Amino acid sequence: MTRTAVLRGIGAMVPPRAVDNDELSALLDTSDEWIRTRTGIRRRHWADPGMATSDLAMVAGERALKSAGGGPVGMVILATSTPNQPMPATAPQVAAGLGLGTVPAYDVTAACAGFVYGLSVAAGAIAARLADRVLVIGADLWSTRLNPDDRATAVIFGDGAGAAVLEAGRESDPGALLGFDLGSDGLHRELARVPGGGSLQLADPDTPFQQSDHYLTMRGKEIFTHAVGRMSESSGRLLKQVGWEARDVDWFAGHQANARILHAVADALDVDRSRVLIHLDRVGNTSAASIPLALTDAAVQGSLRPGQNVLMTAFGGGLSWGSAALNWPDVDVL
């Protein structure tokens, strides 16, 4: 029997500090209206000083494990572009903090597409019998990587984490991940990046952080065009792969970067806008955490119900993108 990854639990976490558009408008040349009309974002959550990506990931992971009814986990995959440090990976620290012992644990870096990439890796590990249950976490803490004077990024990103527990099952099981479509284009890697801190451009201890290249830079208009095109194409291929028509999609769970992007992709797929999950208005762009945060919120609100077909798609720096499809299971969301 072919083993299929099945969703058994989900959890999420955002820091308590909420930062609304008016607060940022007092610091930047912007306004609540400007931010809302261009992005759809009303507020975002930023971590307090001293809080790390691992802290967010552990809370989301713990909630997902409780949602799944507890039990052992054979692997931990953390999708993040803001690890606690360049080395070692943050996933082993998260696994240890959750009391999971010496299970395999590693980071996946695919920017905002990281959670979909993580799901695909987990599904492969389950199919290959490397693990019976896998904890996949998407977590990013971008507030410490944003130039406070850069309106293009400072108003967009928030901090958060979302997690899912996948378990070996059958394709006919509720919650089965039915297919994936992934892609990348490194020729456009400079459209969204953090230039400094890697082997190409090492950190300079004599350069103040405020003047360094450790901030996120992004070319918004070009990113918008690529995001709409790549997510539309990827989603279209996946729909054909799993045998769904647009009318079969009950919920479109796209990466929560910009409401206009989500609506443009839905329009390209002929998916009604009323079936687009929108969570970014309350949390901003939470990068790898955005899809599980949106799914958790929809499940808590009762709009996402067992038996509904969910199409996920994401796009991020790299460039990287990916899509996944599943039939939503009956899960307890904490």
TrEMBL record:
<feature type="active site">
    <location>
        <position position="255"/>
    </location>
</feature>
<dbReference type="Pfam" id="PF08541">
    <property type="entry name" value="ACP_syn_III_C"/>
</dbReference>
<keyword id="KW-0276">Fatty acid metabolism</keyword>
<comment type="similarity">
    <text>Belongs to the thiolase-like superfamily. FabH family.</text>
</comment>
<keyword id="KW-0443">Lipid metabolism</keyword>
<protein>
    <recommendedName>
        <fullName>Beta-ketoacyl-[acyl-carrier-protein] synthase III</fullName>
        <ecNumber>2.3.1.180</ecNumber>
    </recommendedName>
</protein>
<keyword id="KW-0808">Transferase</keyword>
<comment type="subunit">
    <text>Homodimer.</text>
</comment>
<dbReference type="GO" id="GO:0033818">
    <property type="term" value="F:beta-ketoacyl-acyl-carrier-protein synthase III activity"/>
</dbReference>
<dbReference type="InterPro" id="IPR004655">
    <property type="entry name" value="FabH"/>
</dbReference>
<feature type="active site">
    <location>
        <position position="285"/>
    </location>
</feature>
<dbReference type="InterPro" id="IPR013751">
    <property type="entry name" value="ACP_syn_III_N"/>
</dbReference>
<keyword id="KW-0444">Lipid biosynthesis</keyword>
<dbReference type="InterPro" id="IPR016039">
    <property type="entry name" value="Thiolase-like"/>
</dbReference>
<keyword id="KW-0275">Fatty acid biosynthesis</keyword>
<keyword id="KW-0963">Cytoplasm</keyword>
<feature type="domain" description="Beta-ketoacyl-[acyl-carrier-protein] synthase III N-terminal">
    <location>
        <begin position="106"/>
        <end position="186"/>
    </location>
</feature>
<keyword id="KW-0511">Multifunctional enzyme</keyword>
<keyword id="KW-0012">Acyltransferase</keyword>
<feature type="domain" description="Beta-ketoacyl-[acyl-carrier-protein] synthase III C-terminal">
    <location>
        <begin position="239"/>
        <end position="328"/>
    </location>
</feature>
<dbReference type="InterPro" id="IPR013747">
    <property type="entry name" value="ACP_syn_III_C"/>
</dbReference>
<feature type="region of interest" description="ACP-binding">
    <location>
        <begin position="256"/>
        <end position="260"/>
    </location>
</feature>
<comment type="function">
    <text>Catalyzes the condensation reaction of fatty acid synthesis by the addition to an acyl acceptor of two carbons from malonyl-ACP. Catalyzes the first condensation reaction which initiates fatty acid synthesis and may therefore play a role in governing the total rate of fatty acid production. Possesses both acetoacetyl-ACP synthase and acetyl transacylase activities. Its substrate specificity determines the biosynthesis of branched-chain and/or straight-chain of fatty acids.</text>
</comment>
<feature type="active site">
    <location>
        <position position="112"/>
    </location>
</feature>
<dbReference type="Pfam" id="PF08545">
    <property type="entry name" value="ACP_syn_III"/>
</dbReference>
<comment type="pathway">
    <text>Lipid metabolism; fatty acid biosynthesis.</text>
</comment>
